[in-house]
Design goal:
- The protein is mostly helical and 191 residues long.
- It has two domains: 76 residues, no CATH class; 112 residues, no CATH class.
- 64% of the residues lie in helices and 0% in strands.
């Protein structure tokens, strides 16, 4: 049985999806005004059956938004998405595993950092990352994508062909940076 929503309660779900997509775009771009415009473009650029399953519709818009954001990021920093040489990043990472828990975080803690009390610090940390590292971190940690799917997305941004291993290495570097940032923040709080 397909759960269609033609009753009107889908409006609240669509609004929730729009907020989620706005947060995604703002995290990637770092600029709220641009995020709003890209979310509007993503909704306008996808034909959605108003009676379709909400998850399907949200997924279509999310993919369109991600493509637009990645294209914008690549246009602003054309060299920012150039794929690193194989094993270029693996040597410099302080984290062995490419899992969020390797940085000492649970998904719930990350969610709180993104949408809760740690939001400003998280955004400041994201803004200091190179474009590809930021895009990879958001896709892996926030969207829960695997290395291969993320590699395809980053490759589509025009920076050459990324492999799943290059994404893994870059993600581990971002996790290492986040872990260091959290340690330094804890030292400041306890001092």
């Amino acid at each position: 049985m397909i759960d269609n929503d033609c009753s009107g309660s889908g409006l609240a779900k669509a609004q929730d999806a729009a907020v989620e997509l706005y947060q995604l775009a703002a995290l990637l771009l770092g600029r709220q005004a641009d995020a709003v415009a890209l979310v509007e473009e993503a909704f306008a650029g996808v034909e959605i059956d108003p009676c379709a399953q909400q998850e399907v519709a949200a997924g279509l818009v999310r993919e369109r938004l991600l493509e637009s954001v990645m294209a914008r990021m690549a246009a602003e920093d054309p060299k920012g998405f150039v794929a690193p040489a194989p094993n270029d990043h693996a040597q410099g990472s302080c984290i062995e595993d490419d899992d969020l828990s390797a940085a000492g975080l649970t998904p719930a803690q990350l969610s709180e950092m993104i949408g809760g009390s740690g939001r400003e610090e998280m955004r400041a940390w994201l803004e200091q990352l190179p474009a590809a590292q930021r895009a990879i971190f958001i896709q892996r940690a926030v969207l829960g994508r695997d290395n291969a799917t993320t590699a395809a997305s980053v490759t589509g941004s025009g920076g050459g062909s990324w492999t799943a291993q290059q994404v893994s290495d870059t993600y581990r570097q971002a996790l290492c940076s986040l872990a260091n940032s959290l340690v330094h923040a804890a030292v400041k709080v306890s001092a």
